[in-house]
Automatic annotation (TrEMBL):
Radical SAM core domain ranges (all copies): 172-411
Domain of life: Bacteria
The keyword Iron-sulfur is assigned to this record: yes
Domain B12-binding, chain residue ranges per copy: 1-133
Alphabetized InterPro entries for the sequence: BchE-like, Cobalamin-bd, Cobalamin-bd_sf, DUF4080, Elp3/MiaA/NifB-like_rSAM, Methyltransferase_Class_B, rSAM, rSAM_horseshoe
Protein name: B12-binding domain-containing radical SAM protein
Renumbered residue ranges of the record's region Disordered: 528-554
GO molecular function, one term: 4 iron, 4 sulfur cluster binding
Length: 634
């Protein structure tokens, strides 16, 4: 009996842990192949590939993001392969199982909950006596009747074989995200989440976990994403894992979902002191800062402690943070959600994801939908359309905000500009994104594509129809962000005013002399220093001066450090005027750049003109370096 385990991933870089768990458990007893596709693949391409493999049984892992596409595949498969047994499993079909059996007539069996033991037992019966009423945890057909068997006790995780040791996975480990679990279950009872249905948390043995992670790293894994619903719920387990990953990461990046308000201070201190920059990424579900809302959905959250954690992590400069919000929760109207958004944005996350409530099958909130007058999509992803305090018109407006939030803030295309706009020109971050999102849709831009230059032009057009307090500062920061958005010196710019040829020549000549002088000066300074101190100076990151070398920099400090230390980085290169022509861009700004980046009101001194200099291809990672000089001094 040939078995294929399949799923439709959201993207190629994603991998399915579920089907690997099933193969690991049953692969020694049955002929099992894996077949992964994406939700973008044409139905006929998927069907044709499965048809040519000639399986006796096909199992699909189902989620809200792939269920509708999977159903289309199944319906065609059953027409061209009527004798093939179709089995569904996964969180999307583990609840309201009767509904799925009645809706999708092409399905023969559904596996509910943990699938390893249940699916193995089902395969035994399919290849043997076919006594399906013994297979607890399944639903099946008996003539026209749907039979739903009792559930199966949850698995002891340490009896399950590793899903991470398949040789055929090794060639793609470096190109895809590896999904990994150290536990199953969640201790919390959030009524919008499927994890709240399972009581208790089960763990894998930590030594087994470490062994699997070392295997993955040894074989080239670059990103490992932990699926644990609350990675830090067990402090000692989490701490041991953090220590292990720090000691053995070898450049691999690890992503976790954490609950920020329960993170212990000693764990935060350890991470701040020991985590190498860039290897950890925290995903934190804030969802709402409205206490009545959190109480209604049984979400225990201390926002003061959450703020402490997010702030401490951010100040360490070691760990990127992705914070989540959910629009459409009970008692969260448009005005209340505005406050939630601004509360969370004030924490300065690298990414802020705005999601919309999904009324998932099996959750308490879906069961109580009538209580809050929820209207929602009938089919996946079951997004709410309105409730008793948030109208559909409000939802539409928030969708517009979400669109520009993703394009501008989360993509980090204009960080300097956006931070200034939200600090100086708009009442709040929410108001900026909302007004821009409304304008974006009015212009019909949501229906057309965009390049980097288009994003700047569209923001410039939006701001142009609004009376800004300091339009010249905003334009200057947009120029800076545009230059920093390129790996190489850009061939064209989108603004009209530019430095004249004669002025540019004078500036380049001045800069070449300055670099030559500073290189000679630094060479003498290095010669007089002890050997260790020489290495410290010569090895500084681009643009980072000695006084800032041992801690993360705030945005204004970064500029000061660049102005003081950029020439240290370039010492010995002796950039000539000809090389500067090739690698440098110059722009006259009608203000002091470092003043505009500081969190304070601009003064008369701030409006003195300066020269912006951006240098390309001068560091190993080829990120642009920039600094500014007062024009009078230049």
């Amino acid at each position: 009996m040939k078995v294929i385990l399949s799923t439709l991933n959201a993207k190629f870089i994603h991998t399915s842990l579920a089907i690997r768990l099933l193969k690991a458990y049953s692969g020694n007893d049955f002929d099992i192949e894996l077949a992964e596709y994406t939700i973008k693949d044409p139905t006929m391409n998927i069907v044709s590939d499965l048809f040519q493999r000639r399986p006796d049984v096909i199992g699909f892992s189902c989620y809200i993001w792939n269920i509708e596409e999977t159903i289309r595949v199944i319906d065609v498969l059953k027409k061209v392969m009527p004798e093939t047994t179709i089995v569904l499993g996964g969180p999307e079909v583990s609840y309201d199982t009767q509904y799925w059996m009645e809706r999708v007539k092409s399905v023969d069996f559904i596996v509910m909950g943990d699938g390893e033991e249940t699916f193995h037992h089902l395969l035994q019966e399919l290849s043997g006596d076919r006594k399906f009423h013994y297979v607890f945890g399944t639903a099946y057909r008996k003539g026209d009747e749907v039979i739903i068997n009792p559930g199966r006790p949850k698995s002891d995780l340490n009896t399950l074989p590793s899903p991470h040791r398949f040789p055929e996975d090794i060639p793609n480990l470096s190109r895809r995200i590896v999904y990994f679990e150290t536990s199953r279950g969640c201790p919390f009872s959030c009524q919008f989440c499927l994890s709240s249905i399972e009581v208790g948390v089960r763990y894998y043995d930590i030594e087994r976990v470490k062994s699997d992670i070392l295997y993955l790293i040894d074989n080239g894994a670059k990103i490992i994403k932990f699926l644990d619903r609350t990675f830090n719920i067990n402090r000692s387990y989490a701490m041991e894992m953090f220590e292990f990953l720090i000691e053995n990461h070898r450049g691999c990046v690890f992503q976790f979902e954490i609950t920020a308000d329960i993170m212990r201070p000693e764990v935060l201190d350890y991470l701040a002191e020991n985590a190498p920059p860039g290897i950890f990424r925290f995903e934190i579900g804030v969802q709402s800062t409205n206490d009545p809302t959190n109480e209604l959905v049984k979400r225990r959250q201390n926002f003061t402690k959450l703020t402490r954690t997010v702030t401490k992590v951010k100040e360490s400069g070691k760990i990127a943070q992705h914070l989540d919000l959910i629009a459409g929760l009970p008692q969260e109207d448009y005005a209340t959600f505005r406050k939630t958004f601004n509360d969370v944005f004030a924490l300065g996350p690298e990414e802020l994801q705005l999601g919309f409530l999904k009324m998932l099958r099996g959750t308490g909130l879906r069961n109580d939908a009538a209580k809050y007058n929820y209207v929602y999509m009938e089919h996946a992803p079951y997004e709410m359309l309105s409730n008793d305090v948030l109208s559909f018109a409000d939802v539409v407006r928030l969708k517009r905000l979400e669109d520009v939030l993703e394009k501008y803030w989360n993509a980090h295309r204009m960080d300097h500009t956006l931070n200034y706009l939200m600090r100086v020109e708009f009442d709040s971050p929410f108001d900026f994104f909302q007004e821009f999102g409304d304008y974006w849709e009015e212009q019909g831009w949501q229906r057309i594509g965009h390049q980097l230059e288009d994003l700047f032009l569209r923001l410039h057009e939006f701001l142009g129809q609004r009376k800004l307090k300091t339009p010249e500062v905003v334009l200057g920061l947009m120029k800076l962000d545009y230059f920093l958005g390129h790996k190489y010196k850009p061939r064209k710019i989108w603004w009209e005013d530019r430095i004249g040829k004669d002025s540019r020549g004078r500036y380049l000549s001045m800069l070449a002399e300055k670099f030559a002088w500073q290189s000679k000066d630094l060479s003498g300074e290095l010669a007089e220093r002890p050997e260790g101190k020489q290495e410290q100076l010569a090895g500084r990151p681009g643009g980072q001066s000695e006084q800032f070398a041992q801690r993360p920099l705030s945005q204004p400090e970064q500029l000061v450090a660049q102005q003081e230390g950029l020439l240290f980085h370039l010492a010995g290169r002796n950039l000539s005027e000809r090389e500067l022509q090739k690698f440098a861009v110059l722009e006259e700004l009608p203000f002091r750049l470092e003043h505009a980046l500081q969190n304070k009101e601009l003064s008369a001194e701030s409006m003195e003109p300066s020269l912006l200099v951006v240098l390309y291809q001068q560091t190993v990672d080829e990120k642009p370096l920039y600094f500014s000089l007062p024009l009078a001094r230049a």
